[in-house]
Automatic annotation (TrEMBL), chain C:
InterPro entries: ABC_transp_permease, BCAA_transport_permease. It comes from the Bacteria. It comes from Micromonospora chalcea. Keywords: Amino-acid transport, Cell membrane, Membrane, Transmembrane, Transmembrane helix, Transport. The chain crosses the membrane at residues 6-27, 34-54, 60-83, 95-114, 142-159, 188-208, 214-232, 239-260, 266-287. The keyword Transmembrane applies. Pfam families: BPD_transp_2 (PF02653). This is Branched-chain amino acid ABC transporter permease. It is a multi-pass membrane protein. It is found in: Cell membrane. Belongs to the binding-protein-dependent transport system permease family. LivHM subfamily. CDD domains: TM_PBP1_LivH_like. PANTHER family: ABC TRANSPORTER PERMEASE PROTEIN, BRANCHED-CHAIN AMINO ACID TRANSPORT SYSTEM PERMEASE PROTEIN LIVH. The keyword Membrane applies.
Length: 381, 238, 292
């Protein structure tokens, strides 16, 4: 599960030569890369499915949440890490996907439209609407630089939950919306664990996202992302449409966030503004930074971290037998302080994040095996 | 004649890229030394290393007999070493008066700082007239005068000048060279003058150092560089 | 019409705080080319300190002084310990570090003080005085307006009339040249952060009593509004920040007054996007365009 096919090298002094179209960028075995990614996806999928068969309902729900977050973090890390656009608003994009799915599911249910395809259709609607939102923000973003983009997306994240109270008629304010929960198909048997079914759906969404992104990153467009990040002038000289690349990156990233948000809503069959606070957007950023910016494998670490962040506080206070008042104050805050601190330390000391560490470790091991110094970063692996 | 600046086996560069290799020369007190060489020869890199903006990767710089290693950039001016960087180094957002004031802020002797300021205005009447204009409103020549004038407020012993003639009209360039000559003759100022404008530089310099690809390829009295055809052809290309 | 005047005065008082807070953002932006996304959280932290001193000593003024002093210290600390080392990695890294700081500060405040709103009494009456039959400013509004404008004036004097202000400006505009002229650029940077955080602390002390009270998230919205104000004025311009703050205060006051408080957040977002798309350099940007 942690070995994803795509490794993107961290920013280095001159990735340009390797990445510029026209430069000898190694072989471009598009076909074989796709096959390899597919193989890894099938392998990871089978593994997780097998694991879910052994898990209790709550644990399966955790797996499902990791998968939902993975959709978001994977898209986010591509945008921030590879394209250098710092979005602090991905929590709001998740909310967009989640509310779209909830509204679509409600509408379909009210009209008594049923069938296996209703959920995929709703999720697709969520992706589409969020991508559209991403297009709007992305268009603004392409004209903005660094702090402005971060500020605008932060404003979006801070203010969007308020939209649900302005249009209470549609979004039902603080209460939020609920819709019928997903039930396992009859073919799986009457006693099939519903949480396992949810985990499978989320897994499918995550694998699809990872597969698409992994190929995207390896494509010509993926290389353009990095060139645009490192040097817009050089990108222009190389014939890369800078603004269009940035907007498209934002749209793709938003679509992933929309899918993740939709799946996330499906898990509880509810949405409410309280689930998408400003902090969520900051957590998402924290997750991809600690996981390793720009790395899809790092996005997996990040997704796991996010679920841990949600679940850790309860565990801590349960096992430490603290006074009620203290427990209440520590709840949530302790984990947050630790992760915030880790975020800072990672940024200052190890910008490669967890995945950077893993990469360095495997490189060293392999180097030791081959009895020669490991090259720090081989261009094609 | 005592040397104000002694450079031994100096090397430096940007990150892993070496630029200066094994550079050595001395600058006698009260002289103008021209550093010549083509674009990219490493002249700017040399000055930046001398004033500590770049950390040397090897070798030594002795200024007035003292090793400069470990001396912070912002303390050099207090010891009388002034560096007017390439591109003139005027803070364009500040006014002429503010730029000049900035040059003397570190000085304890406020009275002498005032006197030095008045002298600069006397030396460059154009600056006095444009006292309250912002740096970006000045012409190229005025900016160069401002940068040099600001350095003079420190009452330096050694002035490092990086291509003062860049982008200036020949007449203005000649004025600046004449000024350097005057400062040397009247105040005993020592100047290390980086120039691509070889003729102008040699018109004022006492000795010349020719750099190429980060090395000193020749050092000779300015008169010889001017007059020895062979030397001129070989190193200066005219 | 009466309502209009009331909203105008109210907007000016709120705008003065946004102006001070925006000014703090501009100070750091000019000094270090980084938007301090942790400024809201830092201001909340210092406000907690301030009100802890208020409740210990019973004096609002001691508390205010404590908040401002702790702002100075916190700003210097953040620059020395964090930003200095994040800087080489680029502005993206600094923003991310600032956001990490937000998480840490808010979590630590939550752990120490709990997650409920704590009362933050105002030093003056907050009921509006009635002048010639029109409900206008309250005594507290007057204090806020006066304090914010005093700080703005003091900063203007500091930057344009004092040697240290000249050093700080030079260090921000041309760090390398400034070092060659004997300016300790690193120290100026630390000072810039300290000053900005102190101004932020004052703004925090002023704004907290007008809201629901002390809470680790009390400044979230204020930060976004102040950022908007700074952008309206152009991030580079202190005067712009002040005018932008007052302008945004007025606009939000009218929107809230005439369309209802729920619409305020949306108005902020629309305003921010509108300014950025129509005039990215801010309303007061110089004719000189920035080349990217
Ligand atoms: N900031 C820099 N980073 C990397 N290399 C540089 C930098 N500045 C200059 N160089 C390189 O150092 C060499 C010398 O440059 P420079 O000292 O500016 O030459 P000069 O002043 O003689 O024209 C050149 O090859 C140039 O490409
Ligand atoms: Mg040069």
């Amino acid at each position: 599960m942690t070995t994803t096919p795509t490794e993107t090298a961290p920013a280095t002094a001159s990735p340009l030569r390797r990445l510029l179209p026209g430069a000898p960028a190694g072989r471009d075995p598009r076909g074989s890369t796709l096959l390899r990614h597919l193989a890894v996806a099938v392998f990871a999928g089978t593994l997780v499915v097998l694991v879910t068969n052994q898990l209790a309902p709550y644990q399966n729900l955790q797996v499902a949440r990791v998968c939902a977050f993975l959709c978001v973090t994977a898209g986010h890390t591509v945008l921030v890490g590879l394209n250098g656009q710092l979005s602090l608003g991905h929590g709001a994009l998740m909310a967009t996907g989640a509310y779209t799915v909830a509204l679509t599911q409600q509408a379909l249910d009210e009209r008594a439209v049923r069938g296996w395809w209703t959920l995929p259709a709703s999720l697709l609607a969520g992706v589409a609407v969020t991508a559209l939102g991403g297009l709007v923000v992305g268009l603004a973003a392409a004209r903005l630089r660094g702090p402005y983009l971060a500020g605008v997306t932060l404003a979006v994240a801070t203010l969007v939950p308020a939209v649900t109270t302005i249009f209470t008629g549609v979004f039902n304010g603080e209460q939020g919306l609920s819709f019928p929960a997903q039930t396992p198909p009859a073919a799986l048997g009457a006693y099939f664990q519903p949480e396992r079914w949810l985990a499978w759906i989320a897994l499918a969404a995550a694998l699809l996202t990872m597969l698409l992104l992994a190929n995207l990153v390896r494509s010509r467009f993926g290389r353009s992302l990095v060139v645009v990040r490192d040097d817009e002038v050089a990108a222009r000289l190389a014939g890369i449409p800078v603004a269009r690349t940035q907007v498209l990156a934002f749209v793709v990233s938003a679509a992933c966030a929309g899918l993740g948000g939709g799946v996330y809503a499906m898990l509880t069959a509810t949405v409410a503004p309280g689930k998408f606070p400003l902090d969520l957007s900051l957590f998402l950023l924290m997750a991809i930074v600690i996981g390793g910016l720009g790395s899809l494998a790092g996005a997996v670490w990040g997704a796991v971290l996010l679920v841990a962040l949600q679940d850790l506080p309860g565990l801590l206070t349960e096992h430490l037998s603290l006074s009620a008042g203290l427990a209440q104050r520590l709840e949530g805050n302790l984990a947050l302080a630790v992760f915030g601190l880790v975020l800072i330390v990672v940024m200052l000391a190890a910008p490669g994040g967890l995945q950077g560490g893993v990469r360095a470790l495997t490189a060293r091991l392999r180097g030791a095996v081959r009895r020669r110094p490991a090259t720090r970063r081989s261009p094609d692996r | 004649m005592t040397a104000v600046l002694e450079v031994e086996a100096l090397s430096s560069g940007y990150g892993p890229v070496p630029v200066l290799r094994d550079v050595a020369f001395t600058v006698p007190a009260g002289t103008v030394t021209a550093v010549l060489g083509a674009n990219g020869a490493g002249k700017t890199t040399l000055l930046r290393t001398l004033s500590g903006l770049l950390r040397p990767t090897g070798g030594r710089v002795r200024y007035a007999g003292e090793d400069l290693r470990g001396v912070r950039v912002e303390h050099l001016v207090r010891r009388g070493l002034a560096h007017v960087p390439e591109g003139r180094g005027v803070v364009t957002e500040l006014t002429v008066a503010e730029n000049l004031r900035l040059g003397g802020l570190w000085r304890r002797d406020r009275a002498d700082a005032r006197r030095a300021l008045d002298e600069v205005y006397e030396l460059f009447p154009a600056l006095a007239r444009r006292r309250d204009h912002a740096g970006h409103q000045l012409s190229g020549g005025e900016r160069q005068m401002l940068a040099i004038g600001r350095a003079l407020i420190a009452r330096p012993r050694l002035l490092l000048l990086d291509e003062p003639s860049l982008g200036l009209a020949p007449k203005v360039t000649a004025q600046i060279m004449a000024l350097l000559r005057r400062l040397r003759d009247e105040r005993g100022l020592t100047v290390l003058l980086v120039e691509q404008n070889v003729r102008s530089a040699l018109s004022v310099a006492d000795q010349g150092i020719v750099m190429s690809l980060g090395r000193v390829v020749t050092a000779a009295p300015a008169a010889r560089l001017r007059d020895d055809d062979q030397l001129r052809h070989a190193y200066l290309g005219f | 019409m009466e309502r209009f005047w009331f909203l105008t005065f109210d907007g000016l008082a709120a705008g003065a705080v946004y102006a001070a807070f925006a000014l703090a953002l501009v100070l750091i932006w000019r000094a270090a080319r980084v938007v301090n996304f942790a400024q809201g959280a830092m201001a909340v932290a210092t406000a907690y300190v301030g009100y802890a001193v208020v409740s210990a000593t019973g004096s609002y003024w001691l508390g205010l002084a404590a908040a401002i002093l702790s702002g100075l210290a916190l700003g210097a600390l953040v620059e020395r310990v964090l930003m200095r080392f994040a800087g080489p990695g680029g502005p993206l890294n600094q923003v991310i570090v600032a956001l990490g700081l937000v998480l840490v500060i808010q979590a630590v405040l939550g752990m120490i003080f709990g997650n409920e709103y704590r009362p933050a009494p105002a030093p003056f009456d907050t009921d509006a005085l009635t002048i010639a039959g029109v409900a206008a400013l309250s005594p507290y509004d007057l204090w806020v307006l006066g304090a914010a404008l005093t700080v703005v004036a003091l900063l203007a004097v500091l930057f344009t009339r004092t040697p240290i202000g000249l050093r700080m400006r030079a260090a921000a505009f041309a760090p390398e040249v400034s070092r060659l002229l004997g300016v300790s650029v690193g120290r100026m940077l630390t000072l810039g952060w300290a000053l900005a955080a102190a101004v932020g602390a004052l703004a925090g002390m002023l704004v907290v009593p007008t809201g629901l009270g002390l809470h680790s998230h009390a400044m979230d919205l204020v930060f976004v509004i102040a950022f908007t104000a700074a952008v309206v004025g152009g991030l580079d311009s202190p005067v712009g920040a002040v005018v932008g703050g007052l302008l945004v205060g007025l606009i939000l006051s009218y929107v809230t007054g005439y369309l209802g408080p729920d619409t305020t957040p949306l108005a902020v977002l629309v305003l921010l996007l509108a300014v950025l798309l129509v005039r990215p350099g801010g309303l007061f940007s110089a004719a000189r365009a920035r080349h990217v």
